[in-house]
Amino acid sequence: MPYCTTSLLSLLWVTYALIVPGRTCVLVVNFIALIFQLVYLAVFIRFVDAKRRTSTLCATMGACYLATMFLSLLTPSLSSTLGNCCVVVSICMYAAPLAVVPTIMKTKDSSCMPPLYSLTGMISALVWFGYGLAASDAHLMIPNGSGSVLCAVQLVIWALYRVPAAKPVFDQYGYLEDDIKPSNYLSDSESTVCSLDYLLLEP
C-alpha cells in the first residue's frame, strides 16, 4: 500500500511539473522516483502470494489518478487543482507514520517508528520547502513545510519513548549468552555444582 500511494504521488507531481513551466527539478526527481516505485511494484507482484490483492491496489491507485485528472480538467485552472491534490496527498504521506502514535503511547516504546526515515523525510521536506520558497510556489511550500513539522514531531515522539538497548551481560568466562561456547565450557550452574562436588569429596 505505501508503495502504491507513493507511486500515485510521484505520478501526480510529474503531471504537475509538466503543466507548470519551470519545474524541471520536480519533474526529474519524481520521474526517477516513479520509475523506482514501478520497478519495485513489478518485482513485488511477481513474487508475492496475494497477487490479486496487490494488483487490485495498483489498479485502484491508477483509477484515483485518472479520476483526479478528469476532475481537474473540469475546473477553470488545471494546474491549481492538480497542485491542491498533490498538497493533500503529500501531507497525508508525511503524516502517515503518526498513525502508530497510540501504540507507542500505550507500549511506551517507539521502536516501531524508525528515526532515520523521519530524519531523512524532514531534510527532504526542508529542501523542497526552500525550493518552493525560491520558486514562489505555494503547492510546494505548503506540503513540505507541513511535512518538516510532522517529521520533527515524529523525531520528538521517538526520542521521548525510546527504549535504550539492553546492555550485554557476560558470564564469568567472558561469554555472552548467545555466543558459541567451546566443547569444554561449563555454565555458571554447572561450575558451581562441580565446585561443590569437589568440596564434598572425602580426603
TrEMBL record:
Keyword Phosphoprotein in annotation: no
TM annotation in the entry: 27-45, 57-75, 81-104, 116-134, 140-161
Membrane topology designation: Multi-pass membrane protein
Localization (cell): Cell membrane; Golgi apparatus membrane
GO cellular component terms listed in the entry, alphabetical order: Golgi membrane; plasma membrane
InterPro entries registered for this protein in UniProt: SWEET, SWEET_rpt
Keywords, in A-Z order: Cell membrane, Golgi apparatus, Membrane, Repeat, Sugar transport, Transmembrane, Transmembrane helix, Transport
Keyword Transferase: no
One Pfam family, short name: MtN3_slv
GO MF entry, a single one: sugar transmembrane transporter activity
Family label: Belongs to the SWEET sugar transporter family.
Protein name per UniProt: Sugar transporter SWEET1
